[in-house]
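Sharing a chain and its predicted structure for anyone who wants a worked example. Both blocks are below, sequence first, tokens second.
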Amino acid sequence: MAATRLRRTFHYPTESDDEDAVEQGMDEQDQETLISTLSAHDTSSTRTYTLLLSALPLAPALLSLPLLLRLSTFAQSVLAITSFLASAYTLYFLPLPPQTIRVVESSDIKGNANRKVGNGGGYAWNTPAQSSTVATLGRPSVPFLSDGGADLLARYIVAANGGVCAVLALLELWQGRSWSEGVMVGGGYLPGFVLSVVMWARRELRVVDLGELEKLKYRSKGI
């Protein structure tokens, strides 16, 4: 029996061997489970980080409340608190549209020599262009606010908040205080700093649309 056993020459596995093994080893149910797991994990982590980062604008808003009791800081504090609340609203209630994974086939790579994707195909991030109106798909509902009011806020709140931050920064420059005082609670630079961090975090916390992976699954079945 041992003499009739076939022997195969040992060779180190290559990257193509690993890809073939993954493709052959995952059936339709495994693919659906993987896509569902990735989507659920991405959505959950995005929601968690959004809630944690909401403390960035809400904390200075609460700390600025005692400044409303003094007449000299009342007007500036009202503007600052309004800016902080607008930043928190933008972060939580106005998420950017999901970013998609575009599947790049081998034929697309050969047709575009300037595009450098991996050998034999791969994935590329496709960021949809932002329209003048914010998409309402997937946007959390705003309590005590109608859909028309929410759409109006979604359209103008970021620009209005930026204008408020610019006014507060100019007031801080006019007062001539040091930079360290300007970024503390009650300072004119703090609202602009918070808004900048919120806009950066809002972009980084975009969920991933795995629809292209669904299309790739059906394409492999010949549908």
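Comments welcome. The chain is about 60% helix and 5% strand.
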